[in-house]
Amino acid sequence: MIFNKRRVFLKSSFLTTAVILFSGSKLFGAISPLETLSLVQEDLFPHAKEIGIKSAEYLLLILDHSRITDEEKAFIRNGVQWLNEESLARFKKIYTKLSPAQRQEMLETISTENWGARWIESMLTYILEATLGDPIYGANTKGAGWKWLHHTSGFPRPTKAYL
Amino acid sequence: MKYDVCIIGSGAGGAPIAYELSNAGFNVVVLEKGKEYKEEDFTKDEVGVCRREMFTPPLKEEQHVINERVEDGGITRHVGSESGWNFWNGSMVGGSSNLMSGYFHRMKPNDFKLESVYGKIEGANVVDWPISYEDLEPYYEKVERVVGVSGRVTKHKFSEPRSTPNFPHAKLAESGVTKWFDLACGNLGFESIATPRAILPLNALNRNGCSYSNFCGSYGCATGAKGSARAALLQRCKAKIITEAFVYRLESDATKITSAHYYDKEGISHAITAKIFVLAAQAIESSRLLLNSKNRYFKNGIANNSNQVGKNLIFSAGGAGEGRFYHEHLTPQEQKDLMQPGLFFNRSLQDWYEYEEGGKKYKGGTIDFLFEHANIISRARRELYKDGKLIWGEALAKKMYQSLTTSRVLTFEVFNDWLPTDGCFVSVDSEVKDKFHMPVGVINLWGHPHDLKVGEHLAKQAAKVLEKMGAQDISMSISSSPPPNLVAGGCRFGDDPKTSVLDRECRAHELENLYVSDASFMPTGGSVPYTWTIYANAFRVADSILKRIKS
């Protein structure tokens, strides 16, 4: 599996380093960004999980990808911080502790802000890459995303992922 | 060793020279910045090729600065690595011809004499070419044979003269939807043209025919059917190709180029000496190299004592539009025809290559029709918005499923002249440098308002066809934003050294052994995609060099 080959990533990951949160001007604590990102992905596109797409794992590849800029990686991580800080301000809980309805409310709220709309669109784009990219990237399991949309892939298909 | 010919760049402008000169027995070296890929390296990996742009350099390493002229006359400066504005196409052996769609149209006789036929336009530097269509026709024909052009010759109002009756290769298999198009055009009194393609339908020229894999533009061709400079020419000649060789400087004396200096992938500098140098690094980069190569004889850059290098940069003007066909309005057979993957929609219109409006004659252009690209991720991304608002969750999944499984988009692309002006040119930046520590190219952008007027006229005609075909949600976008894959000019050819960089043979007026054979030479671009003309002119320049080198 491609994800198993990426062990090195775990040593320097944007996701294994905790995100520090502030509530108002006070230090609230630290959270793991991966938990927030996984749940946001489920909230944004539950169909991916239903058909077995590994979109959270795909995001690990993206955050270690040679062609994703540091600015984009930082933006993904900053979004986790900002979403949770907005969540603390509104519900006094971090995103992963909210009810499904509250989480949707949070996504609606941030989607009205420039950074939030951009961050959600970025998340959705990576979910779609995971769902509809070649299965060689390890996320579109058995081409489930392609089958869902009746898509015939081009040939030849890649024999190795471009990382 | 001293080569007979050193060519900088291996795309459509450089490869014909390498092919002709090396096959004639001369010692040719090609310096290519990118890597070498062969058919077996090309796959339909949308994530790698289109999302992660594996065939172009990361902008952090190599970029452009774009100076955009805004409405109030001011300039907005965009640094490529910060804005993401990317002008790279294909850094690889064969260049961007590997990734082209291969829509091949010849320029028309009047394209060679724009000023004489249509007159001057205020604010534009329109000139006639120093050569005529008749001069280039034998080379258009040569490209048909050697590179391989397929299609069916369609006689129409603006057909250009041909020295042969037909294309050497039969047309590609077509979508059943082309019949709707032909019928709609017939009803509107428009002349439907079968678009010629640089794609072999069947095995020929020691290459495999098209596999109809449904992905063409943006991807390298795994069968060799696409007439890339690599598949059609470089893999069929003995020219030595040095890959990952970035030429950063040309050295000269007062009259000749003496050496080309390049960095290899380790950053080590090398020098090549040759009797003749041919520059074909793509329009923007060719001007940049000349401007970056200043010396005591050429204080403003090589071949630039008249300050013409980089000037009159042009793109293809126009834009695009589309309409969507929904299953609910179609019979089961029509639905099947609509969704059939792989088959080509090769149709064009040139009814308005010249037109009159308000008693005035206008140079118009070409409209190509094609199905929306098969890339599934990009098609799915289009569904992220509804009524201008971002959507997600079940609503998104439902919209995506409905749209992608029960409808299909037919698009059109408009090609008309991007008038050359003083406001659109290449320079080099005084601050931003690339990974080789060389000043990056600056693309100074301005589109003449005339271009928009013509583009809009053409797009309205295209929309009529979509409407007649029964398409819904018809939209169009004509703008002066430059297509990075359709760029020319910067070293225009002409008979006057004061107003041009190259002579009619594409040799620098100021240096006896320097030729520029990419699209830089074009003083005006015609109203068609450039690749066929670049190939044809490069074969013409190759003949000129051959005559000279033999004498």
Task: Describe the 3D structure.
The complex is a heterodimer of chains A (163) and B (551). Chain A contains eight helices and two strands. Chain A has 163 residues and is mainly α. Chain A has one domain. Chain A has a two-stranded antiparallel ribbon. In chain A, a hairpin with a 2-residue loop joins strand 1 and strand 2. The radius of gyration of chain A is 16 Å and the shape is globular. Chain B has 551 residues and is α+β, with helices and mostly antiparallel strands. Chain B has a single domain, classed as FAD/NAD(P)-binding domain, CATH 3.50.50. In chain B, 25% of the residues lie in helices and 24% in strands. Chain B contains 13 helices and 22 strands. In chain B, strand 18 and strand 19 form a beta hairpin. In chain B, helix 1 runs parallel beside helix 13, helix 5 packs across helix 13 and helix 6 packs across helix 12. The longest helix of chain B has 21 residues. Chain B starts with a strand and ends with a helix. Classes of the chains: A mainly alpha (163), B alpha+beta (551).
Spatial ordering of strands, largest sheet of chain A = 1-2
The CATH first-level class of chain B comes to Alpha Beta
> How large, in whole angstroms, is the Cα Rg of chain A?
16 Å
Strands of chain B, total number: 22
Q: Helical percent range of chain A? A: 40-55%
Shape of chain B: globular
Largest interface: A-B, 41 and 38 residues
Q: From the structure provided, what is the oligomeric state, counting identical versus distinct chains?
A: heterodimer
What's the count of strands of chain A? 2
In CATH, the homologous superfamily of chain B goes by the name: FAD/NAD(P)-binding domain
Number of domains of chain A: 1
In short:
By secondary structure, chain A is mainly α. Chain A has helices spanning 7-11, 33-44, 46-50, 55-63, 70-91, 100-110, 114-132, 144-148, and strands at residues 19-23, 26-31.
